[in-house]
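Example 3.2
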Amino acid sequence: MTSRLTRKDVELDKKQPLYEGFLSVYKYKLKHRLFQGGWSQPIERELMERGHAVVVIPYDPVRDELVVLEQFRVGALDDPNGPWLFEFVAGMFDADESAEEVATRELKEEAGLEAKQLIYATSYYSSPGGTDEKLTIYIAEVDSSLAADFGGLEEEDEDIKVHVLPKQEVIGMLEREEINNAASVIGLQWLLLHRNSVFKNKLSL
């Protein structure tokens, strides 16, 4: 395999702000090297700069339970089942935070839990054709009996209902597409693939 192209193979000519707010959108004018040699013609692309986020899947291996959150999401406003989605703990990076610090903070704020251990699962770009957002997923080993009933910060307009559910019930929700946002699906599938090896000395079932 030949060497891969890198950031050095992109020339950014202009970055124009179109909207700056909670979600900021910019127009980029650039060109890049081509696989068969030479350079592309100038390309214009709009990019939403959302920032990066962390997702945490809280799992209790002793009780074989998952802590699932339910909250309103404007992007699902027209979903046939309504815009309250089942998902897992998640949050954006603040300045100078590590991924582990974000995971620890959000787990406490949204579910009232502290992790016995945080296990790195994977990271991915959510939709790199239109946003720079990159998500990092952790599995948090927790005592699910300590989960709060409700979570979130009022100053961030969060209103979260916390559910503690048997793993098999959550699998059923996944299969019925009741859990239908990318980060939750990817994180849950990672846990199901690696559960036995990661928690082999702690599983009661």
